[in-house]
Amino acid sequence: MKDPTRAIRLESWLVSAGREREPGAPLNVPPVPASNFVLGGGREYARDDGTPTWEALEKVVGGLEGGDAVAFASGMAAIAAVFDQIVAGSVVALPDDCYQGVAGLAEAGQAKERWTVKRIALDDTDAWLRACEYADLIWLESPSNPLLMIADLEAICAAPRKHGAILAVDNTFATPLNQRPLELGANVSVQSATKLIGGHSDLLAGVATTKAPKLWMALKKARELAGATPGTLEAFLAVRGARTMALRLERAQQTAMLLAARLEAHPQVTRTRYPGLASHPTHEIARRQLRGFGTIISFDVRGDADAANAVCAYLGLIQHATSLGAVESTIERRAAIPGQEHLPPSLLRLSVGIEDVEDLWADLDQALRRTVSEPSVASTPQEA
Ligand SMILES: *Cc1c(COP(=O)(O)O)cnc(C)c1O
Fold first, then answer.
1. Alpha carbons 209 and 59: distance in angstroms, whole number
2. For the residues 233-256, what does the mean pLDDT come to?
3. Whose CA is nearest to atom 6 of ligand 1?
4. Same domain, 218 and 92
5. How confident is the model at residue 3 (pLDDT cuts 50, 70, 90)?
6. Is residue 15 one of the residues assigned to a domain?
7. Contact 279, 331 (CB under 8 A)
8. Which domain holds residue 355?
9. Are residues 197 and 272 in the same domain?
10. Distance from the CA of 190 to the center of ligand 1, in angstroms?
11. Which of 75, 147, 221, 353 lies at a CB distance of 3.0 to 4.6 Å from 97, suitable for a disulfide?
């Protein structure tokens, strides 16, 4: 993807983005553990004014998304800062399928009568266009977690909105390398940098990016008042992770496409959801809108929750663990997550890492076969 304001592609820019150019400076902004600074330099206290290490992460993610970024302690901290922008009595339009933390946050606010939540199917573009007219916060997540539905962002972001409304996109699954919501007209794009940006299962961080100076200031203020600041080491590691994100993403989504096609043909799998498959309900929008189909596959194991648990237990190379977007492949049964009981009981969400595709396939295939041949072992509970 080429940023029109830059001569080089984002993939190249990313490798050295935010770098110090002063002779003698370290190539990368080091971790600067500091709460306060010598007065007179414009920076006084870290929670209010930021640190060089957070700013390095903000430069990287802001540049990728095409706006100005504010780094947070986690993806949820960034998301909470966006929700913090809406006034009492607002309407929040939320996808029927979305990250359970966001649904939890929205429902908690509704229970406290701070706002009302309207759940909308991601592929119901007409309902989203109507929501743009009445909702104060239009929250989109595309591809969604875990059903990988795609919203028609181009149409929805371009629609006229209620005065003062904020249209936000959770861009975690796509990453800004596959999709740039701000270019389409979204007011803010959020990333859980914990996932593909960090990429190594070793940090929590989040970033919200916007082109609107007022919203940027307000998000920074929300971070300051909530104290939702990123850790120094985490911000440093997130930048370190971002350097290789293009490479990791390219490899993992190539592998994901192959695995999805093979899973779809596997006799022990009843349904495979991957936006790159022609059978995916929103495949056509995905093709139009996304530069790559992403690194996540959801599939239903033939049988019940026990059969899916058994597959997780029999896997060797693929880690039975939550979260996603890291170098190692991870898998989990999503209906076992509190708040996700509505999902198909045997649905497994596979986050594809950078391992060899044939090794990953061999692992999946043996686990699926063993689940049929040894169903009695299948009841081993795996979820903590
Ligand atoms: C993980 C995730 C979040 C929350 O991010 P944290 O860093 O865990 O707070 C939000 N949205 C999506 C789509 C995610 O996958």
1. 10
2. 98
3. 75
4. yes
5. low
6. yes
7. no
8. 246-372
9. no
10. 9
11. 147
123-143: average pLDDT? 98
The token pair that represents 366 in the structure block: 């043996």
Which residue is catalytic, options 180, 195, 211, 248? 195
Q: Taking Cα atoms as reference points, which of 141, 221, 135 lies closest to residue 174?
A: 141
* Helix, strand or coil, per DSSP, at residue 71: strand
Pocket test for ligand 1, best of 79, 98, 99 (most atoms within 8 A of CB): 99
Based on the fold, state whether residues 197 and 140 are members of the same structural domain.
yes
Q: 316: phi > 0 → left, psi -120 to 50 → alpha, else beta; which? A: alpha
Q: Whose CA is nearest to atom 2 of ligand 1?
A: 192
- 252 and 184 co-located in one domain: no
Q: Based on the domain organization, do 215 and 351 belong to the same domain?
A: no
Distance 268 CA to ligand 1 centre (A): 30
Q: Give the residue-averaged pLDDT of 203-222.
A: 98
Q: Whose CA is nearest to atom 5 of ligand 1?
A: 75
Looking at the fold, whether 345 and 198 belong to one and the same domain comes out as no
Distance 133 CA to ligand 1 centre (A): 27
Domains in the chain, number: 2
On whether residue 377 sits in a domain, the answer given is: no
- Same domain for 95 and 222, yes or no, is yes
CA 311/CA 10 separation, integer angstroms:
38
344 assigned to some structural domain: yes
Of 185, 196, 203, nearest to 14 (Cα)? 196
